[in-house]
Amino acid sequence: MKLVRYGSAGEEKPGLIDSSGGLRDLSAHIDEINSRTLNDKALNDIAALDEDRLPVVEGPQRYGPCVGEIGKFICIGLNYARHAKETGAEPPSEPVVFMKATSAVCGPNDTVLIPAKSKKADWEVELGVIIGTHAKNVSIENALNHVAGYCVVNDLSEREFQLERGGQWVKGKSLDTFGPIGPWLVTRDEIPDPQSLNLWLDIDGHRYQDSSTSDMIFSVAEIISHLSEFMSLHPGDVISTGTPEGVGMGQKPEPLYLKPGQEMRLGIEGLGEQCQMTELTD
Q: CA nearest 266: which of 204, 177, 199, 191?
């Protein structure tokens, strides 16, 4: 099942992508896709609806972030073996964990705003995991049972702010619009193995990232189990599980960073695509 939030920013309505790829309105059944509607019972109730009886939403629609009222936006760094190699870092012995401000979240096709002071804005296609039920000290074997679904994330990063301005990575990760999420929340029953998904990213039609989640150092289940040792995971929390090789920082012979007026297009097998234009802002 593919769940969406559609409409203008801040006024999104819940929707469902039907079997023919059309958009159906869920407003008569739920008022939001958030922590209250991500548990197994709520998702099963939605899945039991007759999609042919749901109102068709006509015309082009803006898709918002596929989950609303996100509690925590947790990210994993250096989680692909070839990406760690391109950055010159040793593969970590435990997941590298950092937070991204939820104010960075935007829709999958919204404009990405690059601050005037930015010199090193970078792209990162990532598999997003949306938590459906409370998880604390969960085993690796049981971890995926706490997942509501999966989505595409572009974990945009300003490398100067991240690495050269002191403190933790969060400053370079949390700029407004630096967290596009969606287009869909694909429920976990449609993704039986999150470790075998192809993912890719193009800039102005040139492919820079082209990999598979099989290159992850720590699997989705291992990440959830690890995080739940240090914090409770709640319904509506989003985990971005790391990016593969091909980021701008790793380009040879020298790094390549985003400029205003460029197009990013990215996607993950079975989870849809995003497309963002970059624009300069104050």
A: 199
Assess contact for 40 and 205: CB atoms under 8 A. no
| Three state DSSP letters for 174-227 | CCCCCEEECCCEEEHHHCCCCCCCEEEEEECCEEEEEEEHHHECCCHHHHHHHH
DSSP code per residue over 158-175: EHHHHHTSSS-THHHH-S
Domains of the chain plus CATH, in order, are 2-53 (no CATH), 73-281 (3.90.850.10)
**3 state DSSP class of 12:** coil
What's the confidence (pLDDT) of residue 84?
84
User: pLDDT by residue (tens digit) across 197-223?
Assistant: 999 999 999 999 999 999 999 999 999
Kind of pairing between the strands at 179-180 and 105-106 = parallel
CB 160 within 8 A of CB 120: yes
3 state SS of 128: strand
Count CB-CB contacts under 10 A for residue 37: 24
Using DSSP bridges, classify how beta strands 238-240 and 13-17 pair: parallel, antiparallel or unpaired. Answer: unpaired
Please state, in angstroms and rounded to a whole number, the distance separating the CA atoms of residues 183 and 176.
18
Which tokens in the block code for residue 266?
Answer: 């990215």
